[in-house]
TrEMBL record, chain A:
The keyword Transport applies. The chain crosses the membrane at residues 26-51, 75-104, 125-145, 165-184, 233-250, 283-305. Keywords: Cell membrane, Membrane, Transmembrane, Transmembrane helix, Transport. NCBIfam families: 3a0107s02c (TIGR00974). The lineage of its organism: Bacteria, Pseudomonadati, Bacteroidota, Flavobacteriia, Flavobacteriales. The gene is pstA. It comes from Flavobacterium soyangense. This is Phosphate transport system permease protein PstA. Belongs to the binding-protein-dependent transport system permease family. CysTW subfamily.
Automatic annotation (TrEMBL), chain B:
Its main location: membrane. Residues 6-247 form the ABC transporter domain. Part of the ABC transporter complex PstSACB involved in phosphate import. Responsible for energy coupling to the transport system. This is Phosphate ABC transporter ATP-binding protein. One of its GO terms (molecular function) is phosphate transmembrane transporter activity. It comes from Flavobacterium soyangense.
Length: 314, 252
């Protein structure tokens, strides 16, 4: 008996040795090249940005206004503008997104047509090109809402019917809404059924259960969603192109009806609209570096929180 | 008749098309322990969850017949399910404390019922924990997370949490199936003490447990109630062949 087994084993191994599996090697090779290529591209991009931006990148660069027709100085107003944008955007999008997610996971019946329509809308919203959001913001918020507000409250005097932080933030919040909804939904689903049942069995109403048990358990999901949305919002330019971003402002915005400067838009301006593109190269790179650090670190935080949620789900 | 707490008449339950409970009729006596036994999937847990309307949460469930608690049909349109669940507590198979402190776990129910006074809550927390025989183990760390307790302690905490809303009836769905023998015997002792004040219905897989803890036993098989009677009688001379086969371990 033993010899038979050994013989088959030998045959099995020798067979494998004899024929060279060209097809297999080819597939493995292709995948390895692809992986290396992606890593290389990432490092080349990051490398160039860090290398070219390192000289200009300093505290002074971050904390001072542009000077000399934006060929010198820093990016302080663009940074602050981006900050205000994402804050106002979050104030609009986070509660709205959270409430939608709670409806979808907690209240909507499995075969509900409304929920299906909402889900379809969210998915569609997530793939709409960002420039469309920009145009929508211009048409809906500025021309319809803004002009309407001016007519109603200001006797037609132009105040809200023009690009400003509020409209840009609201436009951006539409873009980031799907990110928030999906994150919160994911977190809500990790709350075990047993905990909901425990609460209901004690005579809690559905709303009390959501408020006291489900919602506290999904705070981290709301945070992840918010951070991802903020990081997305900080990096997008197209939605604010027509709705509030300014080429250059000598002062920081004072109210929601003011225009603002923005990091992404600043890069675009510097690299295409500047009087001397060559001269502003270091500023462009350093600004890009700031934007990258901002979005990458936000994403990193989101990834960490999300992995904690996933661990809890198991 | 005064000593009947729950009267079930022709209760059937459908999951969509599938009939999971078939015309169940039985009476559950007051301040006694009634055990529901039967093989997995026989409908005993489903039946238990009918008593506090937990099955309401599952889509596509249809229930016919009557579930009279103190003479009131709890499936009547005018009955508020929230009040039903306050009067009929439930302890689950898997201990499910909230990820909150021990104190907050117990105070959860009373707080939902609108009790805000700190002294009153303190008192309820202590009484409930004492009743569930876990007070001495946790009295010095009420602020600690309930998740840090052992499995047996968690389950007794869940019992205390149920007692805190002062129910009349306590439903237990295999409360000791995930516990070690020592924790199990503590739960069983507890059941014994609690029946002075509460009507207890306990689902169990464990025949010895049913024999030890209960006064009455109901045997379920394939969604039907085969037999109900005094535990002594069921275990010594069951009337139905199926009950005997199950109890003697011939199937299940």
């Amino acid at each position: 008996m033993e010899t038979t087994i050994n013989e088959t084993e030998n045959q099995f191994f020798s067979n494998k040795k004899k024929g060279i599996d060209i097809k297999g090697k080819f597939v493995v090779g292709i995948t390895q090249v692809a992986v290396l290529l992606i890593i290389a591209i990432l490092f080349i991009i990051l490398g160039i940005i860090v290398y070219e931006g390192r000289e200009k990148f300093s505290w002074e660069f971050i904390s001072s206004f542009p000077t000399d027709g934006m060929t010198k100085g820093g990016i302080f107003p663009a940074l602050i503008g981006t900050f205000i944008l994402v804050v106002v955007m979050s104030i609009a999008a986070v509660p709205f997104g959270t409430i939608t997610a709670i409806y979808l996971t907690e209240y909507a019946k499995e075969n509900s047509k409304i929920a299906a329509a909402v889900r379809f809308s969210i998915r569609t919203l997530a793939v709409v090109p960002s420039i469309i959001f920009g145009l929508f913001g211009l048409g809906f918020f500025i021309q319809f809402m803004g002009t309407g507000m001016d007519k109603a409250f200001n006797g037609g005097e132009l105040h809200w019917g023009q690009p400003n932080i509020l409209w840009a933030s609201l436009t951006m919040s539409l873009l980031t809404l799907p990110v928030i909804i999906v994150s919160v939904e994911e977190a809500l689903k990790t709350i075990p059924r047993e905990l909901r049942e425990a609460s209901l069995a004690l005579g809690a109403t559905k709303w009390q259960t959501i408020k006291n048990v489900v919602f506290p358990g999904s705070v981290s999901g709301i945070m992840t969603g918010t951070i991802l949305a903020v990081s997305r919002g900080a990096g997008e330019v197209a939605p604010i192109l027509f709705t509030g971003a300014a080429y250059y402002l000598a002062t920081l915005p004072k109210s929601l009806s003011d225009q603002f400067m923005n990091l992404g838009y600043h890069i675009y301006i510097m690299s295409t609209q500047s009087s001397d593109v060559e001269k502003t190269m270091p500023i462009q790179f350093a600004t890009t570096l700031v934007l990258l650090i901002l979005t990458l670190s936000l994403n990193l935080v989101a990834v960490i929180i999300r992995s904690r949620i996933r661990r809890r789900a198991k | 008749m005064k000593n009947i707490k729950i009267e079930v008449k022709d209760l059937s339950l459908y999951y969509g098309e599938k009939k999971a409970l078939k015309e169940i009729s039985l009476e559950i006596p007051r301040n006694k322990v009634t055990a529901l036994i039967g093989p997995s999937g026989c409908g005993k847990s489903t039946f238990l969850r009918c008593i506090n309307r937990m099955n309401d949460l599952i889509p596509d469930v249809k229930i016919t017949g009557q579930m009279l608690v103190e003479g009131i049909d709890i499936y009547d349109k005018n009955v508020d399910v929230v009040n039903i669940r306050k009067k009929i507590g439930m302890v689950f198979q898997k201990s499910n404390p909230f990820p909150k402190s021990i104190y907050e776990n117990i105070a959860y129910g009373p707080k939902i019922n609108g009790i805000k006074d700190k002294n009153e809550l303190d008192e309820i927390v202590e009484t409930s924990l004492r009743q569930a025989a876990i007070w001495d183990e946790v009295k010095d760390r009420l602020g600690d997370s309930a998740m840090g307790l052992s499995g047996g302690q968690q389950q007794r905490l869940c019992i205390a949490r149920t007692l805190a809303v002062s129910p009349d009836i306590i439903l237990m769905d295999e409360p000791a199936s995930a516990l070690d023998p020592i924790s199990t015997s503590k739960i069983e002792e507890l059941v014994h003490e609690l029946k002075e004040q509460y009507t207890i219905i306990i689902v169990t897989h464990n025949m010895q447990q049913a024999a030890r803890t209960s006064d009455y036993t109901a045997f379920f098989y394939l969604g039907e109630l085969i037999e109900i009677g005094k535990t002594n009688a069921i275990f010594t001379k069951p009337e139905q062949k199926q009950t005997e086969d199950y109890i003697t371990g011939r199937f299940g």
